[in-house]
Amino acid sequence: MLxxxxxxxxxxxxxxxxxxxxxxxxxxxVVKSLVSDxxxxxxxxxxxxxxxxxxxxxxxxxxxxxxxxxxxxxVTVNWGVFLDNVIAFLIVAWVMFMIIKAMNxxxxxxxxxxxxxxxxxxQEVLLGEIRDLLAKSS
Length: 138
Hints:
- The chain is mainly alpha-helical and 138 residues long.
- The protein is 67% helix and 9% strand.
- The protein contains 4 helices and 4 strands; from the N terminus they run ααββββαα.
- The chain has a two-stranded antiparallel ribbon. Strands 2-3 form a two-stranded antiparallel ribbon.
- Helix 2 packs across helix 3 (79-112).
- The relative contact order is 0.08.
């Protein structure tokens, strides 16, 4: 059973999928950082100094204990964080669309290119040579 699992795990498709999954996660992290740290601060500045990560709607305020510490956290809907994630998703989706579009174009060109005719089997080549030799000797 262990050998059967090892054979399954080492199949090319499974390994390719695992590599793609890991690279996709890393790519998502980079895009998330791009949106949160590079794109949104200038956009917020252009809109009057808005910090998108701080945009939220408070549903229930935080409750303070007698000593002034927070007893229960506030319940909020974090609209700005959601907006950051939507923009990151759109960037990832756009990049994936462009990659798939390029792959389909390359595949289409490959299909359109005429395939080289297959070489005839060795016995046909040999029979052709015999025929040519017989035609020469006649």
